[in-house]
């Protein structure tokens, strides 16, 4: 099989896997009452940036010739490494949803029965779901041999992260106060022991 075709299939399988992981959690949390929702329009813009980089641009690469001029030579090693990183991102994504349960939301929201989760993967980092998205973006950069579509995920999700993380942490401080301060003091944001 052609390496480019394999990369397209693996990327598509990863995106489908991502959606299948999230779907049951989306259905469950719709029944939860939201007591604090912040920055709705801003959130929509940031989610659009992330979707553009992690979904739309690579989909255009995979299904059209729009970005073919930016393809570069590709190796089986890149295919294997990109596949492994994507698999790791899917595993972490699943764990974050399982650990969060009904506390999960796509945007900045606090639910009526919201609890601060500090167990499972949240024992090591405060925002492992963002870690999972960055792993997806890194997998895309390695897996897709294209100077536009490959790094588009890092740029798109990077914009969301840069403009959301401060507001999310402020919301958690407003909601959980000293409990969140203590949790923040003993955990990293994204990478255990580093950041």
Automatic annotation (TrEMBL):
One GO molecular function term of this record is: protein C-terminal S-isoprenylcysteine carboxyl O-methyltransferase activity
Residue spans making up a coiled coil are none
* Lipid bilayer topology: Multi-pass membrane protein
Any one Pfam family match given in the protein's UniProt record, by short name: ICMT
| The keyword Transmembrane helix is annotated on this UniProt entry | yes
The source's superkingdom equals Bacteria
Q: Which UniProt keywords apply?
A: Membrane, Methyltransferase, Transferase, Transmembrane, Transmembrane helix
Q: What is its main location?
A: membrane
Q: Where are the transmembrane segments?
A: 6-23, 44-62, 74-93, 133-163
Q: Where in the cell is it found?
A: Membrane
Protein's name according to its UniProt entry: Protein-S-isoprenylcysteine O-methyltransferase
Protein's organism: Ancylobacter mangrovi
């Amino acid at each position: 099989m052609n390496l480019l075709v394999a990369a397209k299939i693996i990327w598509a399988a990863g995106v489908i896997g991502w959606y299948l992981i999230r779907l049951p959690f989306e259905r469950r949390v719709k029944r939860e009452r939201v007591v604090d929702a912040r920055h709705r329009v801003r959130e929509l813009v940031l989610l659009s940036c992330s979707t553009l980089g992690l979904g739309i641009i690579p989909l255009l690469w995979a299904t059209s010739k729009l970005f073919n001029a930016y393809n570069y030579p590709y190796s089986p090693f890149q295919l294997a490494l990109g596949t492994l990183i994507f698999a790791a991102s899917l595993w972490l994504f699943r764990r974050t949803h399982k650990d969060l349960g009904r506390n999960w939301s796509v945007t900045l929201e606090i639910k009526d029965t919201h609890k601060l989760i500090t167990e499972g993967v949240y024992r090591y980092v405060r925002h492992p779901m963002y870690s999972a998205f960055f792993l997806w973006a890194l997998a895309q950069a390695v897996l897709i041999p294209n100077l536009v579509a490959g790094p588009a995920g890092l740029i798109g999700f990077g914009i969301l992260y840069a403009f959301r993380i401060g507001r999310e942490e402020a919301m958690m401080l407003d909601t959980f106060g000293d409990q969140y301060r203590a949790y923040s003091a003993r955990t990293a944001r994204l990478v255990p022991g580093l950041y």
